[in-house]
Recover the amino acids of this structure.
């Protein structure tokens, strides 16, 4: 450790002595590492956003979906309450942590005379589909005991009622029934169609009293471990078919990773890797050019050090560490600049443009660590060229230089 510390100290001393040369050679490295760190950070953000978007559409890994059609072949409607009972029994039997029955229908919004799309879901649906609320809360288990059904609405529904926030519309009329508004979903997408979320049994009860309500088939979505998806789908399908004789029950895995050989993130990753390689090559090329020119001017200095007993290994390590220490310092400055820029309001607005209501997480630590490691690696590779030239110089020729 003494030799390592001494070599680093020598390298730092040399950098201070030749700070003008070092400053000029490391400006490009600073910009390159900042660009690389920004690329990795934006890539992580884009990956997280893309995965969240796909999970919002198809469910988390792994989500299995089963739909139940209780109507007979001649069009006679079945009993959706019995189907809901069978779904809840199957979920309890297999102790599925996150599951939700699901059904869509349209109900008349009192006071507006327009129809609102109602999603009948269980409380777990918000977690499974990344459905966050901007005000209030989502549905929970205590809402099952309410006399007046609980409902979560979006901004489009409130606009039909004249606008305003959640406080202005604590109760609304849906299909002739008064419902209590407990939460507001605001995706910030501009003109949203009116939409609301309610518990399945509340929707079935209201839709039964509203002759204009037309609802879709009841379905079940379950979030299970990926390795248990196929077996879980088979067992749930078997149980529902046994509990509902004559009903059509089928299903599949609906999350985005169910499609084998399809990776929507691959083009993004390849683009970022290519960009990073080009940036690093340009930065390393400039550093090597300046380092080789400067080492030619220090031949006499290195010869004197060799004459006083410095070994080839010590000279090689010292010259290489000059580049490593310099690039690490430059990389640290570049990463700091990147973090500072990331926190600027104008940058935050640009990164979240078109993604309403999204709050950016903190700067990805993986991007900072990657930038620092790459900075050290570039310094080692760029420093090995002038270090090799330095150790190949003969002592007598170097002193005569």
């Amino acid at each position: 450790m003494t030799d390592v510390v001494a070599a680093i100290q020598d390298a730092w001393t040399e950098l201070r002595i030749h700070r003008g040369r070092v400053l000029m050679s490391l400006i490009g490295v600073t910009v390159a590492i900042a660009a690389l760190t920004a690329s990795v950070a934006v890539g992580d953000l884009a990956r997280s956003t893309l995965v969240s978007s796909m999970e919002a559409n198809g469910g988390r890994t792994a989500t299995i979906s089963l739909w139940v059609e209780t109507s007979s072949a001649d069009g006679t409607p079945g009993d959706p309450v019995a189907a809901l009972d069978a779904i809840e029994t199957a979920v309890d039997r297999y102790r599925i942590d996150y599951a939700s029955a699901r059904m869509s229908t349209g109900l008349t919004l009192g006071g507006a005379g327009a129809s609102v799309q109602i999603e009948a879901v269980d409380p777990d649906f918000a977690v499974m589909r990344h459905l966050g609320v901007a005000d209030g809360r989502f549905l929970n288990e205590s809402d099952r005991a309410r006399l007046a059904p609980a409902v979560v609405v979006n901004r489009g529904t409130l606009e039909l009622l004249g606008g305003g926030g959640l406080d202005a519309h604590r109760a609304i009329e849906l299909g002739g029934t008064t419902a209590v508004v407990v939460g507001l979903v605001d995706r910030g997408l501009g003109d949203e169609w009116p939409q609301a979320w309610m518990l399945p049994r509340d929707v079935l009860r209201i839709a039964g009293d509203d002759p204009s309500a037309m609802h879709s088939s009841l379905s079940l979505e379950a979030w299970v471990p990926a390795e248990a998806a196929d077996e879980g789908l088979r067992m749930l399908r078997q149980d529902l078919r046994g509990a509902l004789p004559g009903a059509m029950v089928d299903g599949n895995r609906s999350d985005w990773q169910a499609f084998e050989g399809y990776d929507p993130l691959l083009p993004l990753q390849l683009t970022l890797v290519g960009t990073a390689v080009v940036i690093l090559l340009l930065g390393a090329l400039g550093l090597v050019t300046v380092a080789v020119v400067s080492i030619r001017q220090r031949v006499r200095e290195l010869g004197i050090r060799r004459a006083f007993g410095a070994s080839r290994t010590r000279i090689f390590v010292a010259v290489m560490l000059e580049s490593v220490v310099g690039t690490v310092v430059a990389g640290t400055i570049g990463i700091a600049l990147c973090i500072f820029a990331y926190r600027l309001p104008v940058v935050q607005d640009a990164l979240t443009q078109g993604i309403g209501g999204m709050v950016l997480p903190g700067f990805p630590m993986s991007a900072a660590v990657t930038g620092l490691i790459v900075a050290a690696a570039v310094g080692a590779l760029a420093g090995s060229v002038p270090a090799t030239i330095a150790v190949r110089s003969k002592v007598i020729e170097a002193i005569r230089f």
In short: The longest strand covers residues 98-109. The chain is about 55% helix and 15% strand. The mean pLDDT is 79.
